[in-house]
Specification:
This protein has one domain. Helices cover about 40% and strands about 15% of the residues. It is built from twelve helices and nine strands.
Length: about 325
Amino acid sequence: MPPLDIESAPLLNQETNRNPAPSGTASENGRTVQAPEDNCLAAFTTEVIISSAQDFFQRLLSEPLSSHAWVFRGHADSTWRLQPSLERHAARKKIGPMKAERFVIHEFKRVAHQYELGVHEDDELEWLALMRHHGAPTRLLDWTKSPYVAAFFATAEAAEDDSCVVWAIDAFTLTGVAFGMVSQMFPQFKNERHEILCQSGVFQQIFMQQYPQPEYALVAPVQPSRANERVTVQQGLFLCPCNLHLGFEQCMSKVLQSANRGSRMLHKLVIKPEVRTDILQQLHRMNISYATLFPGLDGFARSLGTNLEILGKVGHPLIPGPFDA
C-alpha cells in the first residue's frame, strides 16, 4: 500500500521539520497542558561520539547493541528530541495534544471509507499505524529492528555540517518494565503475556485514555496485527506513549526510572559530520538505500540523489555504465 508521496509519509525517517518543538503551554478542555520537560532523558542516556565509520559499525557488532533485544531510530540532526509527529504539531500550534489527536483520527476515518483499506473498525492501533504510514501526525514513534536502516535515515537526511544521531533502546527490557507497570495499574492483565498490549480493546484502554492521571506514564513497543510492505522492508515497529499531556520523553523517563539498568537501556550514537558519507557509502554496499527501503519508482528516483553524494566522495561511479571515463 505505497503512499502517494514519500516526503509526506516518512515512516522511520524523521519528518522534514528541522526545528525542535517550542516550549510553552496549550489549553485542553479548560485545563493547562504543560510542554514536555527538556532533557528529561539525559540522566538515562549513554552518549557516544562516533569519529569514524569503523568505530560506528564495530559498536553495532559489539555488546550490548549487537543483541536482538535492541531497536533503533535515526535522526538527521543531533539536536532533535524523541517526539512523535503529533506531539510536535500540537506544541507548535499551541493545541492540546488530545484535542489534536481526536481531530486527526476523526478526519482520517471520515475520508478513509472512500478507499478499500481493509482496516478493522475497532482496532485503534491498526488505524494509527495506517495513518502514520500515509504521513498523518500520530502518537506513534517509528523505530526499526535494524541499526543499519536507522543509520541510513540519520546519514542520508543530515545536512553537510550537522551531526546526526542513531538512538538505540533495549526494547526487551523496556517491554518487561512497561508491562510490569501496566499490571500494577490494571491487575486483570497480571497473568497475561505482554502481546496483549496490542489487542484492540486493551490497547485503547491502556494507551488511549482521554484524561489519564498525571502519574500514569509509560512507553511500550507495539506492532499492529497486520503490517504493510514498508514496515516489513524497514523492519519497523512503534514506541507508543500512554499520556500525551506529559509527552513521549517524560513517559519514557518514567519507565527508565523504574528499570534497574538505568542508563544502560538508552544509547545515543552521535555521528560527526565528516564521518557521515563514509557510513552512507558502506550502507550502500549493504544494499540499504531509498530504493530498497521505499519499494517503487519514487524510492529509486530519490536514491539517485544519495548516489550522487557518494559518487562525489569516492570519485568513481557506484555502478559501471556507459558514462564511465
